[in-house]
């Protein structure tokens, strides 16, 4: 099998594991191929991989189906808690903060519950709910359709939403980091939202656990070198030493800090 096809099959399985299910059309748009190509791919990967085809979609099989966001939030709990605490330590009371979608930004939101009088601007409903427990906070959400099961808002209207605000801090995660430091997402719309947050914030805080280094996703936008502060649980493998070394004054290894 051609290497390009193998990589595409790996990406399809990764997206489904992340989201629980995705349409053929969305996969074709993400990967820049025709829907016919995706359907041929699904013929090859559905059997024996815990995946099934349902009405123009590919989903996790019933015996493996769970809320994908909750699955991600429940992995590497210790590392994500450490990341959340370290990132929250950078943000003082009274700050205005963008918080992106994702389970690691949610860990930051949970750590921020001890702050007061924050203005939170987010498309992450779970983060908003976590921070709503402190009544001195102000929380601003975009309108539109809530994407389930991830409990977030995505799309061009969300890009416009973030374009109407300025913040002191932008807290965001990524789906993966390429070998050259490129920041990867599963969908171009997620890249556009993240980049809008980045442009409109004074300080950018990328939060990610070490497993995101080398993890593939099809949509590229930005680079580690562009980020003001990077918070991860621990150093990635030795193969990323040359990538990490120039960032030493901007990267926090949260488990070491503890």
Structure overview:
The protein is globular. The protein has helices at residues 3-19, 24-31, 35-45, 68-73, 77-88, 103-111, 125-131, 156-163, 188-199, 241-244, 254-257, and strands at residues 21-23, 51-54, 57-60, 96-99, 119-122, 138-140, 167-172, 176-177, 182-185, 201-207, 219-223, 229-232, 251-253. It is built from eleven helices and 13 strands. A hairpin with a 2-residue loop joins strand 2 (51-54) and strand 3 (57-60). Helix content is 38%, strand content 21%. The protein starts with a helix and ends with a helix. The chain has 258 residues and is an alpha/beta fold. It has two domains: 3-64, Winged helix-like DNA-binding domain superfamily/Winged helix DNA-binding domain (Arc Repressor Mutant, subunit A); 71-257, 3-Layer(aba) Sandwich (Rossmann fold). It comes from Nitratireductor aquimarinus.
Radius of gyration: 18 Å
Give the domain tally. Answer: 2
CATH architecture designation of the largest domain? 3-Layer(aba) Sandwich
Beta-strand segment tally: 13
Helix and strand run:
HEHHEEHHEHEHEHEEEHEEEHEH
Mean pLDDT: 88
Shape: globular
Poorly predicted runs are none
Domain HTH deoR-type: 5-60
Keywords: DNA-binding, Repressor, Transcription, Transcription regulation
Pfam families: DeoRC, HTH_DeoR
Organism: Nitratireductor aquimarinus
Gist of the model:
By secondary structure, this protein is α/β, with parallel strands linked by helices. It has eleven helices and 13 strands.
